[in-house]
Amino acid sequence: MKKIAILTSGGDAPGMNAAVRAAGKFALNTDLEVYGIKRGYLGMLNDEIFKISSQDLGGIIDRGGTSLLTARCPEFKDPKIRAIAAENLKKRGIDGLIVIGGDGSFHGADLLSKEHGIKVIGIPGTIDNDIAGTDYTIGFDTCLNTILDAIQKVRDTATSHERTILIEVMGRNAGDLALYASMAGGGDGILIPEQDNPIEVLAYQIQQRRRRGKLHDIILVAEGVGSAHTVAEELKKKVHTDVRIVVLGHVQRGGTPSGFDRVLGTKMGAKAVQLLLEEKGCLMIGIEGNQIVTHPIEYAWEGQRRNHMEDYELTQVLSK
Ligand code: ADP
């Protein structure tokens, strides 16, 4: 392996820059030629590929977002389009690729590898923590802390006005953000896609809390269960409480990456280059039991994700 490229794809996540920096620096220090691809697969297709120098990697470790930029590229599902994009790598002699993104990005990487023989390593970068084969994805921890900051502020006003506040957080397929935010932020109820918790149960829990003299509630709603507005309308029909909604939205994507996400990105970025130097490909990197591990890339969507049951039950007990 002589030449490799790095791209970030899908939704941005704080800590992606740490992975880009570590991969880039590690590769340059082992005399690989390193290329950056702007805007993910869209940039690969449009030939937005440039040679990375160490100057490009300076001053980015503490910045949220991704210095390589990211974009969606739905056309990449078409094999003809992937062939054009692959040719842009081949004409430069690039035979190794590091893809930092979510499971959609890993699907694209897998196909690129199988169809065009490019060795691809996937690094999980997404705030949702919705990928199998890793306990944590890059960006999850920073996002969790952003939500905790919001909970603290929302709780002040919820307490003063004796209200039920529903905080809608990201997580289309995974309730991890809601679950961890509830555990760490002292939540009083949660709705996540992995658990069927009817609104009746939530309403009952609120009634029980009122009987115990608790006059306000912070409820975490993962977007995967539906909009907090709809949940609020349903809840109002079942329990007499003053309900308000906070949709955190894109604020969850930004911010200075936490120390944890920077270390995770750094370790994974370096590992990706080591794997390419060993001529390995079609792998994803994860962290399990505090060890950096690898799996076949398709494990990201075929493998079993962490079981949430125990954590969920804990939040239920603690919200009483
Ligand atoms: P994420 O990587 O965060 O899950 P997306 O699902 O939007 O985000 O995927 C990012 C990009 O990966 C898409 O815009 C597309 O270019 C590519 N991609 C996603 N799914 C596939 C697929 N099934 N086949 C090929 N490319 C895909």
Report what the structure shows.
By secondary structure, this protein is α/β, with parallel strands linked by helices. It folds into two domains: 183 residues, Rossmann fold, CATH 3.40.50; 113 residues, Phosphofructokinase domain (Rossmann fold, 3-Layer(aba) Sandwich), CATH 3.40.50. It has eleven helices and eleven strands. A seven-stranded mixed β-sheet has the order 3-2-1-4-5-10-11, with helices on both faces. α3 crosses α4 and α7 packs across α8. The longest helix is centred in the middle third of the chain and has 22 residues. It is elongated and about 70 Å long. The chain starts with a strand and ends with a helix. The model has no long low-confidence stretch (mean pLDDT 96). The site of adenosine-5'-diphosphate has 18 residues, from α4.
Within the largest sheet, what's the order of strands? Answer: 3-2-1-4-5-10-11
Q: Name the CATH class of the largest domain.
A: Alpha Beta
Number of strands: 11
What ligands can be seen in this structure?
adenosine-5'-diphosphate
Backbone CA Rg: 21 Å
Uncertain runs with pLDDT below 50, 5 residues or more? Answer: none
Coarse shape: elongated
Binding site for ADP: 21-25, 155, 186-188, 212, 214-216
GO cellular component, one term: 6-phosphofructokinase complex
Binding site for ATP: 11, 72-73, 102-105
Protein name: ATP-dependent 6-phosphofructokinase
